[in-house]
Amino acid sequence: RQKLKILSKAEPLLGNIQDISHQVWFFQDQTLTAVPRKNCMVPVTVTLISCKCPETLEKDKGNPIYLGLKEPELCLFCEKVKDQPTLQLKEQNIMDLYYENEPVKPFLFYHSQSGRTSTFESVAFPGWFIAVCSQGGCPVIVTQDVGKTYITDFVWSVLY
After folding, report:
1. Residue with more model confidence, 57 or 26
2. Is there a domain that residue 4 lies in?
């Protein structure tokens, strides 16, 4: 039997994210992209931690979480660029977001799981989901075009 690891303090989960066609998130040239998994490639380690004050957010949307990258230390957030919600990366310690007294909505995503797959919906821009293009080699974005041009279903694999 496996023992559950008890954490004495809040710590983000570390893992990898891939889409349902086995493209992994990869960080290169200051851009987060989705690329087909290859043997010699190391996918970026993603950090994930729940918001500590979810009661201020909508119910039944999923677990409000912050998402970041371990190396380099960046966090994902959404902001409007030319009237369009856009996924951005910012040099930010994910634990600083966690310890804020109020949810930092631009950095929050609703993590919703269905079976093995997860979706990540922007809290700041409801109806906009983290997505990748189906052919690969494209930046990770946010879209409201769910299930058409872009893939919004991901598999989150925890690293031990």
Report:
1. 26
2. no
Q: What is the DSSP string of 49-96?
A: EE-S-GGGS-TTS-EEEEEEETTTTEEEEEEEETTEEEEEEEE--HHH
Please state, in angstroms and rounded to a whole number, the distance separating the CA atoms of residues 26 and 43: 5
For residue 23, is it within any domain? yes
Confidence of residue 134 (pLDDT cuts 50, 70, 90): confident
Residue 5 has which token pair? 């690891």
3-21 confidence digits (pLDDT tens): 444 444 689 999 999 998 8
The count of structural domains within the chain is: 1
Q: How far apart are CA 94 and CA 13, in angstroms?
A: 11
Q: Which of 90, 83, 92, 67 is nearest to 125 (CA)?
A: 83
Backbone angles phi, psi at 106, to 5 degrees: -60, -25
DSSP 151: E
Q: What does the pLDDT average to over 44-49?
A: 95
User: pTM score, two decimals?
Assistant: 0.90
Which CATH number covers residue 108? 2.80.10.50
